[in-house]
Each structure stands twice: as structure tokens, then as C-alpha cells.
Specification:
Domain ABC transporter: 6-254
CATH class: Alpha Beta
Order of helices and strands: EEEHEEHHEHHHHEHEHEEHH
Pfam family, one: ABC_tran
Number of helices: 11
Structural class: alpha/beta
CATH architecture: 3-Layer(aba) Sandwich
Distance between the termini: 36 Å
GO molecular function, one term: ATP binding
Number of domains: 1
Main location: membrane
Helix content: 25-40%
Bound molecules: adenosine-5'-triphosphate, magnesium ion
CATH topology: Rossmann fold
Subcellular location: Cell membrane
CATH superfamily: P-loop containing nucleotide triphosphate hydrolases
Largest sheet: 6 strands, mixed
Radius of gyration: 19 Å
Length: 255
Amino acid sequence: MSLIEIRNLKVHYPIRGGFWNRVVDTVKAVDGVTFDIEAGETYGLVGESGSGKSTTAKAIIGLEKATSGTVTYEGKNVTKAENRRKIDYNRDVQMIFQDSLSSLNPRKRIEDIIAEPLRNFEHLSKDDEKLRVLQLLDIVGLGPDSLYKYPHQFSGGQRQRIGVARAVATHPRLIIADEPVSALDLSVQAQVLNFMKRIQREFGISYLFISHDLGVVRHMCNNIAIMNRGRIVETGTRDDIYDHPMHIYTKRLLA
Ligand SMILES: Nc1ncnc2c1ncn2[C@@H]1O[C@H](COP(=O)(O)OP(=O)(O)OP(=O)(O)O)[C@@H](O)[C@H]1O
Ligand SMILES: [Mg+2]
């Protein structure tokens, strides 16, 4: 049994228009996606802009409703919100968002941002909570002076690391990382990626790693799926994909 199994997942958006606001068309953002992620591995999801990567991620974590298909976590069907609540899914599966500035509440101090998942899922005393937040900041290489600052007072790389600290706060089993380093300089990219690898080793985390950057994916991922227009067109190990790409779209991406 894999950690998580995605079967024939579809997310279709209705397009409404005209006088009666009728459904005139549908966007098939995700159109029958199937893959598994094993415990402890980093699974890469690659594809050009608009291919449906973020929508897949959001449907898995429950931010978008699946039109059809199933998500099975540790053998339990978590496609529906009530089933996700019954087990620790919302705590076990966390997300790092594509855009760190808009995913961190600008009016909250870093202390409250990182403590938020702890407050939702663990009942710690004020002192214990502060201790945990300080530990998390330390893990991502930020000092105690960060506690009382606001997101805009950090650099892009630092903010991305704050997003990582928040994602690992509840000791998740799986982190969905949606373009976690795309907005960063190359040198800072390496820092954040190496850091993600380190906490993976330390805590045994699995990643669904989403990117359009094949270099970064090669550095991070054991298994890779190539996505195009809502569908997976090719899957394989890192060596399969980079040394023997089969699908014409994959060859084009690599070129
Ligand atoms: N709420 C929505 N309503 C209608 N269409 C949507 C909605 N969200 C996304 N889409 C469409 O679904 C498709 C897939 O979008 P998605 O954000 O998943 O792509 P992506 O692969 O993450 O792209 P990028 O690399 O640019 O982040 C796009 O064509 C997009 O326009
Ligand atoms: Mg996206």
C-alpha cells in the first residue's frame, strides 16, 4: 500500500455565460490523473504553465472539490471532506504554496503564522507553543528576532522558509510543495531545496514536488510524472525520464 493513491482524479470548472448564466463550457483543468506516492519519497509533477499541476495539488489537499476520482490516504478514502476530518489527514498533509507573499497573512506576526497549525491540531500551553515556534524558526535558519516581524519584513527566500516552517509544524507525513523555489534566486533556491531534503531525512517526510523547472526536479525527485493539459502523459524514474524520454511532449520539455 502506498502512502497516498490518486485514481482517475478530475477537476472540471464550469464556464457560465449568456443572459441565463448557463454553463456554456467546461475547463478540464485536471482530467483523469492517476499516480501513487510512497512513504519517504519525493514524487515530481512536471508540466508547463496551465497544465493543471496546482489544481491537482489543491484537489488532493481538499482546497478544490474533485469532480470525480478518488484520493486514498493510508488505505482510507479521503476524497470527501468529512472523511478527511475523521482521520488526521488535514494535519498529516500540508502544503507549501507557489507564492509565499500572498499565502502568508500580511497582518499577522510570524509567531502567529507558524503557530496557526499548532493551534488547530495540538493543544499546547503558551510557553510550549512559543518554544515550538522558536525551534521551527531555528530549523529553517531564522533567529528569535523573527517572531514579532510581519511577512513583508522578510526577503523572498526567508518568506519561503517561513512557509516551510509552517508546513512542518505539525510533523506531517506528506508535504505538497507547489513550485516552492520558483520565485527565488539560484543561490537561495539551493538553500531552500537542501533544507527540504534535510528535514525529509530527519522527519521521514514524503513530498509531492511540483515544478516546471526540470533541473530542480532532477535534483529532488525519485519518480516523475509529466503533465500536459490536465493529463499525465508519461511517468517514470528520474533516469527513465531524463535519459529515455518516450512521449513527444516530454522530449519537447527537455529540449
Ligand atoms: N477556478 C478556476 N476556474 C476556471 N478555470 C480554472 C480555475 N483554476 C484554474 N483554472 C484553469 O485550469 C487550468 C490549470 O490551472 P493550474 O493552475 O492547475 O495550472 P498549473 O499547471 O499550476 O500552471 P502554473 O505552472 O502556471 O502554475 C488553467 O487552464 C486554468 O486557467
Ligand atoms: Mg501552478
